[in-house]
Design goal:
The chain is of the alpha+beta class. The strands form two sheets. Strands 1, 4, 5, 6, 7 and 8 form a six-stranded mixed β-sheet that branches. Strands 2-3 form a two-stranded antiparallel ribbon. Strand 5 and strand 6 form a beta hairpin. It starts with 11 loop residues before the first helix and ends in a 31-residue tail after the last helix. The C terminus is likely disordered.
Length: about 190
């Protein structure tokens, strides 16, 4: 049996999975962790401006925590492993930049009812080092920044870099950060 949820409700499938005796949280030869994926954001629309076509697509996974809660160590470990897949991919004429995993911590339940929000990212290079060294990344190891609603929307639109919160746009040559004047005007 997998560890039960402390608050909130599971989907029927997740409840079944957590209760199944062959899917234990830990054991002598088998350990299993189930983490639901809260949000995957995908920017796919190509834009054209005076600089050219901006056809680089972007994708990022976001774990959302409410009531200022933090991910448990096992969830941080699983998300760290997913974060190792960040990078560039190209196939079938599509170029995709995977920005890895972010953790969004809300004071309440939504950005509108939360005066305080935190945006957390894994420090560059630490996921691979931790994985190879068998070290767990803890919440205190994350890069955590306070953000506001407007910044959150810009992050979801990939107009702010998820690691630095610096303005960015996606260039056809794969570049991320271009001078502000060359980015497509906000709509």
């Amino acid at each position: 049996m997998t560890r039960q949820r402390h608050f909130g409700n599971d989907t029927p499938f997740c409840a079944w999975m957590r209760a199944h005796p062959r899917l234990p949280s830990s054991g002598p030869v088998f350990g299993f962790t189930a983490t639901d994926s809260d949000v995957v954001v995908h920017r796919y629309k190509a834009e054209v401006d005076g600089v050219g076509t901006r056809d680089m697509q972007a994708i990022m996974q976001i774990e959302v925590k409410t009531s200022m809660s933090q991910p448990k160590p096992s969830q941080l470990d699983t998300l760290m492993r997913l974060n190792m897949f960040r990078g560039d991919l190209a196939a079938l004429g599509c170029r995709l930049r995977h920005y890895g995993v972010a953790v969004l911590v809300l004071e309440q339940t939504t950005p509108d009812d939360s005066e305080h929000m935190l945006w957390a990212r894994y420090p560059a290079g630490t996921c691979e080092e931790a994985f190879l060294g068998g070290v767990r990344i803890r919440w205190r190891d994350m890069v955590v920044r306070p953000i506001n609603r407007e910044q959150l929307v810009d992050l979801l639109r990939f107009e702010l870099h998820p690691d630095t919160l610096a303005p960015m746009c996606l260039g056809a040559d794969g570049s991320e950060v271009l001078p502000i004047g060359s980015c497509v005007a906000r709509q």
